[in-house]
């Protein structure tokens, strides 16, 4: 490593034609004497050019992910599942308003809702199965 230390400062310069501001880069390069500061900067610049050259031909294409059309079952409001008052109220407090919201939950997630026990979770699972939807037992299963 022939380069021992590099410092730089950026100074504002006079406003260029067209009103755009210009900046000046000042670099201080200290080497061990085996190479000159000019050669060290030139070598670093060449390495940067090699690294960035592949990017010169890259064409950026913005891919907009298509959101899947929600199934008609997923749009069913929570009220239409005919759940017990306790289960319904717990889900509402947890900001669950439709079947699509429930589809992000696993059985374990349901049990973590405040005041939501296994009977309520079983009731929700049965209501979802009646409309043809199943949710995983645990977070790790798909």
Spell out the blueprint of helices and strands.
Layout: E1 3-12, E2 23-31, H1 37-52, H2 85-93, H3 99-102, H4 107-111, H5 118-130
Antiparallel strand pairs: 1-2
Low-confidence stretches: none
Mean pLDDT: 84
Structural class: alpha+beta
Which word captures the global form? elongated
Strand share of the residues?
5-15%
Which strand order do you get reading across the main beta sheet? Answer: 1-2
CATH class of the largest domain, named Mainly Alpha
Oligomer: single chain
- Superfamily at the CATH H level of the largest domain? 5' to 3' exonuclease, C-terminal subdomain
Largest sheet: 2 strands, antiparallel
Number of helices: 5
Measured on Cα atoms, how large is the radius of gyration? 32 Å
Residues in helix, %: 25-40%
Can you tell me the CATH architecture of the largest domain? Orthogonal Bundle
Strand and helix order:
EEHHHHH
Tally of separate domains: 2
Q: List how many beta strands DSSP finds.
A: 2
Query: Remind me, CATH topology of the largest domain?
Result: DNA polymerase, domain 1
3D architecture notes:
This protein has helices at 37-52, 85-93, 99-102, 107-111, 118-130, and strands spanning 3-12, 23-31. With 142 residues, the protein is an alpha+beta fold. The chain has a two-stranded antiparallel sheet with strand order 1-2. 10% of the residues are buried. The model has no long low-confidence stretch (mean pLDDT 84).
Structure in a nutshell:
With 142 residues, this protein is of the alpha+beta class. The chain has helices at residues 37-52, 85-93, 99-102, 107-111, 118-130, and strands at 3-12, 23-31.
